[in-house]
Amino acid sequence: MSLELYPIIFDPILKERIWGGKKLKTEFNKNITSDITGESWELSTVKGDVSVISNGKYEGKSLNDLISKFPEEVLGTKIHQKFGTEFPLLFKFIDAKDDLSIQVHPNDELAKKRHNSFGKTEMWYVMQADEGARIVVGFKENSSKEEYVENLENKSLLSILKEVPVKAGDVFFLETGTIHAIGAGIVIAEIQQTSDITYRVYDWDRVDAEGKSRELHIELALDAINYNTTDTEKVYSKDENKSNPVVNCPYFITNYFPLNGEVSVEKTNDSFTVYMCMEGNFDLELNGEKWSYKKGDTILIPAALKNFNLNGNAVLLEIYI
Closest Cα partner for 99 from 15, 151, 21, 190? Predict the structure, then answer.
């Protein structure tokens, strides 16, 4: 039995968050019913949150089902060899109406030991930012565990962290151990390792509707934090109709692909490819068939699908391993 090759899309997995808003509906037409929807998990195999296919022959099947039947064809020869039948990345859109908590993610070694999970290296592409929006990312100057703990206890943590103003198109690459928070008024596309391990260290002293504050993970975070300064912002080219490198790390490669007209794409079968549409509309054409996409769509191209055409006016992120 062989895999029927076509571009695959999924039902979004919507997450309510204390800091969420309505932009996933107003900006992307996601079918949200809550005014505090913070995340749309576009492509996930996190346990309990596995994406379900929403188009074509495999509609209604989970991504895990498809990978277990066709591991090389979906994941790619190189990825199957390295990860078996695990899908190694997680793709999200995040709407931060309010500040997210200040948090950190552990590296592979720590996450494996404590949680039997991958670590969480991630990148952010800023899709929309209100006037004055900012993120918190890393330390202003090299710090130490002692200085960090003192400022955390004194509620002056922000005084030693770096706040960076952001605008649409900005990209930040966060290695594990980088302390961070997405600020209010920002919509981002997030690409990360398949992991849902977050150590929350400060949550702005807020409480939910029941008056409860969210759990903090202060002790767990101490050994996970990189107390040195880090350079997280990525500068990249924006040449039309080609893949412009943005992030190249051991966990994923992300290119910026501004599409204007028609482009023929040829790939190897080493890795799957994912396109996230940041702006505009485009078609993918394959063997005389055409699929249409718009801003906010996330498309999985199985590794065995090696030749196709893209046509339209859109800004895409192109991701593979």
Answer: 21
Is 119 inside a domain boundary? yes
Domains in the chain, number: 2
62 with 110, same domain: the answer is yes
Looking up tokens 């590296």 gives 107
Contact indicator for 233, 172 with CB cutoff of 8 Å: yes
Instruction: Check 17, 114, 134, 200 and give the catalytic one.
Output: 200
Say if strands 180-181 and 134-139 run parallel, antiparallel, or are unpaired: antiparallel
CA distance 89 to 118: 10
Residue 147, domain extent: 13-234
Is residue 57 in a domain? yes
Residue for token pair 């065995």: 304
Which amino acid type is present at position 224?
Answer: A
Report which of residues 208 and 8 the model is more confident about.
Answer: 8
Q: 269 and 187 in one domain?
A: no
Give the pairing type, strands 307-320 and 273-286: antiparallel
For residue 273, give Cα distances in angstroms to 17, 20, 142, 198: 29, 29, 37, 26
Return the CATH number at 118.
2.60.120.10
Write out pLDDT tens, residues 198-211: 999 999 998 877 88
Continuous segment of H or E residues that includes residue 53: none
Give the dihedral of Cα atoms 133, 162, 180, 97; nearest 10 deg.
-20
Mean pLDDT of the chain: 96
Last residue of a domain, one of 204, 234, 264: 234
Q: Can 200 be counted among the known catalytic residues?
A: yes
What span, in angstroms and rounded, lies between the C-alpha atoms of 179 and 218? 12
pTM of the predicted protein model: 0.95
Q: Model confidence over 100-118: pLDDT tens digits?
A: 999 999 999 999 999 998 8
Distance CA 240, CA 211 (A): 51
Please report whether residue 278 resides in a domain: yes
Q: What CA–CA distance (Å, rounded) separates 233 from 175? A: 11
